[in-house]
């Protein structure tokens, strides 16, 4: 089982990348979000992977964070969600947004992804609502404390702050996810709380 690759980004396309590990090129299929996080050709990268083997095919899926890989595995357990649809969902939503959508039963949020209709989106949030809280929203990527991991920390702190004010966890998570979508990934904790409070109260 190949769990992780560390090497150089050799080349990439619309939904794939080749990671050169000591002269061996591994083709990994990725979400748009992961591809944008990998950087430029020739740069050092760490990719968390999931190997899928079927009767007629073998494919390696790559993720910028272990959290994204965990969500991919959860999504593909839902009937009707194959690897292509799961990657489309992870391209459209961050793991924090996906977690908030499942916890808050926000099917239209999931339906933003290409190839996901209202019925399938409803099935996804319904089946994953109880599992959403068990997974981390974002951390786990290799590297350093990037802006993304800092943002995920601010996101979690903002959710906690709203819960302390008496909002239900699902309501707090959904409000913060909407606030982050409005303010951007680098929003501060105080700004997230300010905007999320308006969303939750409204």
Name its key features:
single chain; 202 residues; alpha+beta; OB fold (Dihydrolipoamide Acetyltransferase, E2P); Helicase, Ruva Protein, domain 3; 5-stranded mixed beta barrel; 9 helices; 19% strand; globular
What is the topological layout?
Elements: E1 4-12, E2 16-21, E3 24-30, H1 32-38, E4 44-53, E5 58-63, H2 66-75, H3 83-92, H4 95-103, H5 107-110, H6 118-128, H7 147-164, H8 169-183, H9 189-201
Parallel strand pairs: 3-5
Antiparallel strand pairs: 1-2, 1-4, 2-3, 4-5
Q: What does this entry look like structurally?
A:
Helix content is 48%, strand content 19%. The protein is built from 9 helices and 5 strands. Strands 1-2-3-5-4 form a 5-stranded mixed beta barrel. The protein is an alpha+beta fold. The relative contact order is 0.11. Among the domains are: 4-65, Nucleic acid-binding proteins (OB fold (Dihydrolipoamide Acetyltransferase, E2P), Beta Barrel), CATH 2.40.50; 145-202, Helicase, Ruva Protein, domain 3.
